[in-house]
């Protein structure tokens, strides 16, 4: 048996990652959108930290982590395991040798802003995931277990990579990897595996979603910010936002249709994210898709006159195009001599009080311009 207590200072970053080591803990954030749809092998997820050593099955990974917004990604070999992602994430796990990049679920919920202990056990004949000691996943039918190339790949060793969604703050308190000489006899839980979260459970099935119920499972500070944002948007003139809630309570939209401008909240039980854009009118053939208006650059420049730090943060929040598929709605924006191609011309924000404050400042500027 070989047990490796990984030193935070030994972990190496690659791509658009900012790291720091304080009090023997590793702080990580990514500054660019990641390709986390996992519709192809995860080679396109190009921003992460990694342990500069390869490891061999059977093994156990024990990591203690904290994130302040969705989500966390462990990449091992050719596979991945996602934690703390919204319920809409339908590719939460894939095989470390032969990934099929198809929808697959397990109960991957972890609390925000709390340290969580995660254990992943890759045996030669079984696999298990534990979160705070609770069994969340178990399988004796992973493709790698019967793969003809497992022996070759295992002799070479597998690399562990860790990443998080853009601007999520990830803190790694400890990381330990244990290799075993013989296959593991995994201890099973007596209880049934918990069901994956695949909907916003704040909304009762069959009931028309209401504003208050859609956000009822969110943390108090975030729920209060949403209520404040709702009052702010509905009071604005001349923008005249109208609120819409989708039939499942997963999305709350605010449309200023006279100006082709929108803001949206995407609720997912106790997590969420939000976005704004000058939306694209798509009720015709793609070659005729258009916007009623697009004042992104004008608004950033206007905001830069009074609040340059907010303007810079807002430009950072533009959702980068990562060429995930052929696209006719990516948009090039320029600000302070910097250029960025944005997916759907959209800005995205995480579940933080500061982001809500920045959004209000930006929308106030839009309202002043119009």
Describe the protein.
The chain has 370 residues and is of the alpha+beta class. It folds into two domains: 2-179, Jelly Rolls (Sandwich); 211-369, no CATH class. The chain has six helices and 23 strands. It has helices at residues 150-156, 211-214, 220-235, 296-306, 308-316, 353-369, and strands at residues 2-5, 12-14, 17-22, 25-30, 48-50, 59-67, 72-76, 79-83, 93-94, 116-122, 127-131, 134-139, 160-164, 170-179, 242-245, 251-256, 261-268, 271-278, 280-281, 290-291, 318-320, 331-335, 338-349. Strands 1, 3, 4, 6, 10, 11, 12 and 14 form an eight-stranded antiparallel beta sheet that branches. Strands 15, 16, 17, 18, 21, 22 and 23 form a seven-stranded antiparallel beta sheet that branches. Strands 2-5-13-7-8-9 form a six-stranded antiparallel beta sheet, with no helix packed on it. Helix 4 (296-306) packs antiparallel against helix 5 and helix 5 packs across helix 6 (353-369). The mean pLDDT is 94.
Total beta strand runs: 23
Element order: H for helix, E for strand: EEEEEEEEEEEEHEEHHEEEEEEHHEEEH
Distance between the amino and carboxyl termini: 67 Å
The CATH topology of the largest domain comes to Jelly Rolls
- Tally of individual helices: 6
Average predicted confidence as pLDDT: 94
Q: What is the 3D form?
A: globular
CATH class category of the largest domain: Mainly Beta
CATH architecture of the largest domain: Sandwich
> How would you characterize the largest beta sheet?
8 strands, antiparallel
The proportion of residues forming helix, as a percent range, comes to: 10-25%
Number of separate domains: 2
Strand content: 25-35%
Derived from helix and strand composition plus strand pairing, the structural class reads: alpha+beta
Which runs of at least 5 residues are low in confidence (pLDDT < 50)?
Answer: none
């Amino acid at each position: 048996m070989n047990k490796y207590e990984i030193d935070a200072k030994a972990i190496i970053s690659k791509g658009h990652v900012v790291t720091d080591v304080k009090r023997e803990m590793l702080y990580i954030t990514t500054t660019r959108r990641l390709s986390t749809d996992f519709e192809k092998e995860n080679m396109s997820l190009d921003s992460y930290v990694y342990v500069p050593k390869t490891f061999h099955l059977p093994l156990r990974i024990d990591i203690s982590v904290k994130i302040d917004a969705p989500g966390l990604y462990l990449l091992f070999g050719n596979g991945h395991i996602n934690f703390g992602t919204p319920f809409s994430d339908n590719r939460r796990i894939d095989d470390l040798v032969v990934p099929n990049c198809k929808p697959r679920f397990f109960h991957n919920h972890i609390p925000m802003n709390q340290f969580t202990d995660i254990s992943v056990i890759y045996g030669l004949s079984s696999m298990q995931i534990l979160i705070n000691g609770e069994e969340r996943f178990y399988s004796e039918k992973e493709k790698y277990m019967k793969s003809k190339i497992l022996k070759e790949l295992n002799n070479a060793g597998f690399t562990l990579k860790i990443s998080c969604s853009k601007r999520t703050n990830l803190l790694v308190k400890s990381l330990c990897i244990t290799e075993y000489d013989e296959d593991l006899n995994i201890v099973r839980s007596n209880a049934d595996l918990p069901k994956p979260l695949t909907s916003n459970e704040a909304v009762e099935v069959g009931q028309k979603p209401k504003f208050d119920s859609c956000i009822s499972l969110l943390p108090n500070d975030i729920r209060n910010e949403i209520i404040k944002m709702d009052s702010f948007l509905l009071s604005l003139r001349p923008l005249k936002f109208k609120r819409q809630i989708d039939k499942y309570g997963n999305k709350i939209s605010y449309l200023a249709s006279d100006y082709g401008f929108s803001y949206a909240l995407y609720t997912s039980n106790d997590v969420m994210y939000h976005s704004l854009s000058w939306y694209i009118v798509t009720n015709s053939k793609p070659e005729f898709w258009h916007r009623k208006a697009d004042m992104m650059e004008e608004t950033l420049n206007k905001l830069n006159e009074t609040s340059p730090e907010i303007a810079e943060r807002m430009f950072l929040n533009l959702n980068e195009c990562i060429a995930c598929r052929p696209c006719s709605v990516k948009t090039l924006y320029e600000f302070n001599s910097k250029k960025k191609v944005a997916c759907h011309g959209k800005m995205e924000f995480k579940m933080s009080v500061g982001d809500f404050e920045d959004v209000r400042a930006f929308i106030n500027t839009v309202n002043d311009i119009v």
